[in-house]
Amino acid sequence: MQKLSTAILGASGYVGGELARLLLGHPHFELKFATSENFAGKLISKVHPNLRGATNLKFCKISEVEKVDVIFSCLPHGSLAPRISEIEKLAPKIIDSSADFRFENPEDFEKWYGHSHPAPEKLEEWVYGLPELHREEIKKFSKIAVPGCTATAAILSTAPLVKAGVIDSSKIIFDLKVASSGSGNKPNAGSHHPERAGVLRSFKLAGHRHTGETVQELKLKNVPGYSITSTPVVRGIVCHAHAFLNSEISDKEVWKIYREFYSDAPFIRIVKEAGGIHQLPEPKILSGTNFCDVGWILDENSKSIIAVSAIDNLGKGAAGASIQCANLVCEFEEKAGLEFLGLHPV
Amino acid sequence: MQKLSTAILGASGYVGGELARLLLGHPHFELKFATSENFAGKLISKVHPNLRGATNLKFCKISEVEKVDVIFSCLPHGSLAPRISEIEKLAPKIIDSSADFRFENPEDFEKWYGHSHPAPEKLEEWVYGLPELHREEIKKFSKIAVPGCTATAAILSTAPLVKAGVIDSSKIIFDLKVASSGSGNKPNAGSHHPERAGVLRSFKLAGHRHTGETVQELKLKNVPGYSITSTPVVRGIVCHAHAFLNSEISDKEVWKIYREFYSDAPFIRIVKEAGGIHQLPEPKILSGTNFCDVGWILDENSKSIIAVSAIDNLGKGAAGASIQCANLVCEFEEKAGLEFLGLHPV
Amino acid sequence: MQKLSTAILGASGYVGGELARLLLGHPHFELKFATSENFAGKLISKVHPNLRGATNLKFCKISEVEKVDVIFSCLPHGSLAPRISEIEKLAPKIIDSSADFRFENPEDFEKWYGHSHPAPEKLEEWVYGLPELHREEIKKFSKIAVPGCTATAAILSTAPLVKAGVIDSSKIIFDLKVASSGSGNKPNAGSHHPERAGVLRSFKLAGHRHTGETVQELKLKNVPGYSITSTPVVRGIVCHAHAFLNSEISDKEVWKIYREFYSDAPFIRIVKEAGGIHQLPEPKILSGTNFCDVGWILDENSKSIIAVSAIDNLGKGAAGASIQCANLVCEFEEKAGLEFLGLHPV
Amino acid sequence: MQKLSTAILGASGYVGGELARLLLGHPHFELKFATSENFAGKLISKVHPNLRGATNLKFCKISEVEKVDVIFSCLPHGSLAPRISEIEKLAPKIIDSSADFRFENPEDFEKWYGHSHPAPEKLEEWVYGLPELHREEIKKFSKIAVPGCTATAAILSTAPLVKAGVIDSSKIIFDLKVASSGSGNKPNAGSHHPERAGVLRSFKLAGHRHTGETVQELKLKNVPGYSITSTPVVRGIVCHAHAFLNSEISDKEVWKIYREFYSDAPFIRIVKEAGGIHQLPEPKILSGTNFCDVGWILDENSKSIIAVSAIDNLGKGAAGASIQCANLVCEFEEKAGLEFLGLHPV
């Protein structure tokens, strides 16, 4: 079978680099164009040193991209929507990892991003790229808005509980711990190693923009707490979703709720062990993978449940999810090219 | 003025080492005995390499300790209470960093520690060693039970809000991020560097024993959520206390609540800046200090407040707090020997 | 083509876990047995959490292993040689990652390991498993002694220079910086996270046992300096080989020496860039790969060359090298199953 | 006794911040001015968050500095020399942590810094601020050029051996491992946390400018090897000096050489233990201190010695050394204000 041709727009960032790595190893996709206005003409392995020897592809400008089967856009938030009509001409299928097309209602976009949507009439052509919630829709669409990384963790941690109606959905607290690569590859005062190493920095305790998509996807009536702490790791998110139980529930019943909800989700693993040092989802072993591990602890004392999810922010949180959606859109095996199991220890 | 003589019981652990460092630099205390049944006869600097050249003191056995003015006990939980009558003969003042005498009611001890208290009749002789809540009592007592490290962070983050009655005290969620030194100096599978480095491990999401003292000190009617995540730092705790507001409140009013509550607390700093990379309490810069930095963010969307506190678990969370209490008990300046400002960057 | 059956002896350690990961993804090998006397009966994914969901294989005892095509032995040093006659019956091909059969002369083994070799008559059946030096021999042998991890880095950094005769081989200094996983998965005082995190520990500055194989493979007449520093990373080795030049040489000539020496080595990449932040080999981006990146800097002032190599100690330093050798022994493509490109950033 | 007044020029950087911390705790110095052209008018604790609550001092411009007793200059390399005549009017004593006045011969400055010295006639007024080599001269001078951080580690590791004539001084190799704070507080591509975390980066393997002062102070006839590796720690330098022995020597003799050489040096500790995990100098426990720990290992096999030194690059490597020199210049106790013992664990 001939491989489908692909292009990555905005390929010099971390998500773009991870996508390049995944596409170079993918059985059905071929990476033909990788754009960067700054690095046009340079080997992509100059920016992504792990690709040394694996490709001689050079960055090009967006204006040089020719028609391909699938476009992966990693352009910054707000860059794709204004030029979407132009980009649509380059490929019948577009997978976007920015926030531009994640909202169903332009009002919600405006609420969380602070300005009106530049192409509201296009929103209905897009579907939210979380296969665990929208697998069948994704297969039918050709334009996929890949979720924000922390939103993926937040939504997947609690979707089964919200749907089952066992928690008080009006008072959920998402307390997320995140990695430095999630803020991109631009150096700044806060990312300077002497400042960032060893830090437990309360980065965004309220008003994080991913709250909006979480509300949309979980169909919440109230805005949940949504706090982000920067930790001294490079990849990974762990989400603790604290929720009060509507009534007493057994651990076995919760098992059933999660198992059923994720019965056909190849990248969800329930991690809940009774002993050892790996009892609950932990992102360290997920680097480079597309897994989202989920688990929970019932707290009898506070009559609450703490749901836990862990992902690689560049994997299931961005590039991996993009490939997973592309696989569905192109009718490939959902796991194609995403078989890497992760390293231990690392 | 002649220095008061002191002994550290259980001086080979991390809290004992930190206490030794602080006592060696203290203007009014002299370290005369440091016990370790395992290392008796060896220089304490063999175990605490930062003390090289600063002292020739050797570990001795508890049985060799002679009468001193103040005893600092760093014996493991459950070790002091059964022999308290014997230890009381060695010094008129005892500062204990274990959990043995933290509870007012033996029933509470039993609930959280799983067995009945070995000396319940002694509990009334002890006071909970948190000067920010009990300064005047501490001055009057001679036996001080120093709080658990995460409890210190949890209590100090929210005590002003609870007292002011502005939050729903029945639904507080404490989400704490902790360091590896908090688990002591005994190697185990989970502390092995390849496993522990880079980890965001959901360590204890429910049932943590420090919950009990937090309930007692905040006089909570409901048990709060109390979750601990192990992070890849060596020292430090950051506590995020999520609480729902009883009614709308302005940031200015919250400022007033915290300022008044902590008006006479020399180690509490309100950290809440509008810009820069150090806007809220962060434990990295607190290593070696006795500070507890506190701050908060109001979240209009979820009608909640996220209170933040940060400490060094071995400082304000254990050894520093012990010295602070000893200063009060001995009528010294509260800050004596605790002037270290912390390092930046580190 | 039917897959060849394999067994891993001593599969609960880090090298065994990495081998299991590689074999589960290998196109031509099938993992049938994974032994652990301690964990027999338990899922291998209990010990190697990255393998969750990828296999239901359980550990078994060595006594339960049936005949297979290839055995990978990860038994501790000194464990295979005494029972080699027994193990030989289990498979026609054995790849061993211990030091038991690395030496040509039993005297050398005795010098560096402190006791006489238990099966000296067997040594001639084995070949040193460094394809970059012994590719054709490896193809002809069926028993391969995989090099020590630091030896791989040391030898590959300088082999071209030694062979070309451009450096003073009597005065080489290997200064190696290593990771914590290289010391295995047994916790100890030095691997305890609070002690090991952030450390630059002069671990073994003289007398390291890998010196012996380095001498053998580089055919050195003098024992070189060979110093190891423990650094706070989990995977990776970087080797700085300091050598004095016999006479002036140009950078271009050195390029030629390395290019020719490694012309047919698919896992060697020359990394020597003029700008950017990735100018020389750096192990961080090699985690999980089988690459050995090499480079150098000429120092006109001191008339010396500093050769640099970087590997993943569990990859090219152990498990990856084992697979590479097995591929050669079994006449598979040398890179089969070793295509992972590594992550960036990580 | 009234405190001497001081000013820090260039106080917004890491060395300036560390100096401010030390001066705020110093018994005989008072910090009156802290300059920063960028932050003039802002609290110094905005930039150095560890100073919160300890001072209300604000940054001022250099033009606002009034006459003081001692000036500490932390201006960037090349900034002080051109305006030295102007600065000299502000204080009779100047302690400079830049490279501007470290060389005795302007030719050496030119060789290593690539341009001619802007005030060569002033060089003879300055002394190299390494008390362990120049204590008596420093007391007599009023202008002190504090050594480069890696030079301090390199020189102090081997000065006793070079003076004793027991090593081949023509073939020394300094292999240094350094921390991220040594490169200052300006973010750049290489200091961006995702790139810098977990790195073992061969940063400067030849031609490092500190080589020049090392040659000068050790009075070497040949330029030594001098290689720098960036490691993922924030503070600390460990130096491995590899040197070939002129003739056989016993460990006891080496002990004697080091002990005698450093007999009157209050900040040098010989660290060379037979067991445990702290056998040789390790910088982790030195953060915030002014110690330089030194040790060595004799290697019989390669007939060499590996001398080891460890410092805090911001302590003994810069700010601590500045205070130590100022103490000598002002005839204070050499250790005044430098009593901090360092933390363990950290």
Helix content of chain A: 25-40%
Rg of chain A (C-alpha, Å): 20 Å
Residue fraction in strands of chain A: 15-25%
What sort of overall outline of chain A do the alpha carbons produce when their principal axes are compared? globular
Number of strands of chain A: 14
Biggest sheet descriptor of chain A? 7 strands, parallel
The overall average pLDDT of chain A, rounded, is 97
CATH level 4 superfamily of the largest domain in chain A: Dihydrodipicolinate Reductase, domain 2
Class of the largest domain in chain A in CATH?
Alpha Beta
- Please identify the oligomeric state: homotetramer
List segments of chain A where confidence is low: pLDDT < 50 over at least 5 consecutive residues: none
Q: SSE order of chain A in H/E notation?
A: EHEHEEHEHEHEHEHEHEEHEEEH
Q: Determine the N-to-C terminus distance of chain A.
A: 36 Å
**Largest interface in this structure:** C-D, 55 and 55 residues
Number of domains of chain A: 2
Number of H- or I-type helical stretches of chain A? 10
CATH fold node name of the largest domain in chain A: Dihydrodipicolinate Reductase, domain 2
> CATH architecture of the largest domain in chain A, please?
2-Layer Sandwich
User: Which strand order spans the largest sheet of chain A, edge to edge or round the barrel?
Assistant: 3-2-1-4-5-7-6
What is the SS-derived class of chain A? alpha/beta
